[in-house]
Amino acid sequence: MNERIQQLVDILNEARRIYEQENRQLMSDFEYDKLYDELLGLEAKTGVVLENSPTVRVGHEVVSQLVKVRHDAPLLSLDKTKEIAKLEAFLQVAPGILSWKLDGLTIVLKYSGGALVQALTRGNGEIGEDVTHNGKFFRNIPRRIDYTGNLSIRGEAVISFGEFERINSEIEDGEYKNPRNLCAGTIRQLNSRIAAGRNVDFFAFAVLEGPDFVEKSEGLQFLEREGFAVADYKPVNPQNIAAAVEDFKLLVNDFDYATDGLVLTYDNINFSNSLGSTSKFPRDSIAFKWADELAQTRLLGIEWNTSRTGLINPIAIFEAVEIEGSTVERASLHNVSIAEALRLGVGDEITVYKANMIIPQIAENRTQSGFGGHPALCPVCAAATQIKEENDVKTLHCTNPNCRARVVRTIAHFAGRDAANIEGFSIATIEKFIELGFLSNFSDIYSLQRFEAEITGLRGFGEKSFANLMTSIEKSKDIALPNFIYGLGIDNVGLAGAKALCGHFDFNFQSIRKATPLEFIAIEGFGEIIAASLHEYFQNPENNAIVDAALPHLNFTTSAPPATQANPEISGKTFVITGELAHFKNRKELAEQIEAAGGKVVGSVSKKTDFLVNNDAESQSSKNKKAQELGVKIITEAEFLGLFGPIRKAFFDDGDGLIEDGGEHA
Predict the structure, then answer these.
(1) Which label site among 219, 244, 357, 468 has the fewest CB atoms less than 10 Å from its CB?
(2) pLDDT by 10-residue block (mean), the chain, 666 residues
(3) Is 158 helix (H, G, I), strand (E, B) or coil?
(4) How many other β-carbons are positioned within 10 Å of the β-carbon of residue 518?
(5) Which of 82, 86, 101, 626 is catalytic?
(6) What number does CATH give the domain 295-398?
(7) Which CATH code is given to the segment(s) 68-162+189-288?
(8) Is 477 a residue of the active site?
């Protein structure tokens, strides 16, 4: 029995470490809770509680390059229950407040003198990470508040489902599995420009330091008056707690943020403080986790889907069942390790549920006939597959770098903001349409109308969603030629290069298609590599067939866009951008400023280049060396801004001088 306790401690600690530090999942929430409850039972039965048991430890030390800061007081996790009766018993001694348990990243914000001075992650509960540089970019927090004393508040940083879909559709080198992982990855970035480009929301749920209040609800009302978003809450007592839980439950499906339950806490602050805590849990609060609606079904098989990164994901396919008001017939198994642990075989009797009432998962395999193994060949391109193992988690990968699964990335890139800009066409939708045979390349986007009946019949994709998508596709038919060429995804050809290409050929697409490598090399900033990429792309019959299928649907912009704020110091000049930026969110934003002022941005330095923008003039980069050899002037961002004359405060200034830490883009 002691051996089983040690085994459970090791498994649960490793699962928690991977989840908290690497934003990955070793097992489902259902399986974790099941093992955790088993460990609790064994500890109670034997009296054996190991020092590193997850039932007594708050968490693991966070591995990060971010500065570690000790919290003023430990941020303990919460004990949990799935029983309404326990909530009613909890409230017998005092009334409480009930609010969402948001599934994001716990953050402590500190204000002093009315300004934000620090943002800390929860970390291991005692020591957190300083993420102030990213905290100031939370979309909905006030930059200044009326209260000028020291204020410390605890809350949850979250990313909405809509923002999750948008960001995932724009990330070319891999997707995040869920909004919580995306939020954690965003906040822990060392470069604040990434956080500035993503909409992270913060919801407060407790005042840790500040004005004196009698009730916690008074503190929440104070925070709302100061401009903070507060997690929705309800005053509750033993008589109305069941109804309050049901009210929250009815809102889950339409709630735009991930939630794994509710939090119940006593409202009176002095009473709460008098209760103290255990080594892990405060005694004044408890988490209520949604009782999972379980359904029994039969496994029909495991489908292996190759992602755009080459990762091959196992998907369990089972006889359709109704759970939480919708039909479910497939669930992600996440990785090979989980499929092996469940011993899944065709025909097995399985129990399925929706994690957090949203994501289909397999809870257990009742018959366990045995895992049949992973495919030896990629299901998309038939290339050999390879198992990779990291931290005891096995994943399956396609070894072919040119796998046809790249079609997902190709279509997503074409539909992206800087290309066709098809709003609402998410990665998930593209993958679903490919899976169902509606799409095989980007030109098929313009023939989706013929699948109206099939698409409107899909779960979560009714007539309104279809109509919105068709409207976005119709708008995309009017497209600037540089955006179209960029959308083709030609190796080494970015948006700036596409603009230079179109300008050189007077926006004549057929001339571009027929050009020779020597003609491409003649373009300012183009070298042999870019020329070869362009020539190879347009010499490929398959590429040309796809392009030809799309052309009848498109209306190209045939002339260069005019400069909107022509500047004599910039107009007609050629710029190259390199290195890290401080005042612009990214190179694209800087390039847009140059082009708006009448300048041109190219990718490489040549004798025709007027300026190389680089904040590190002493860098030994190839572009710096080339500029020095050719006598091209190297300027910093500040010097570039100086070309405008007086800096326009409305764009470049946050009220205290030039923007630091990547710029304020609220």
Answers:
(1) 468
(2) 78 74 66 82 76 60 65 87 90 94 93 93 87 87 88 94 77 63 83 79 94 95 91 93 91 83 94 85 89 81 78 88 77 86 89 72 86 89 87 83 73 88 87 85 92 85 88 93 90 80 88 91 80 90 91 77 63 83 71 81 81 78 81 84 52 32 28
(3) strand
(4) 9
(5) 101
(6) 2.40.50.140
(7) 3.30.470.30
(8) no
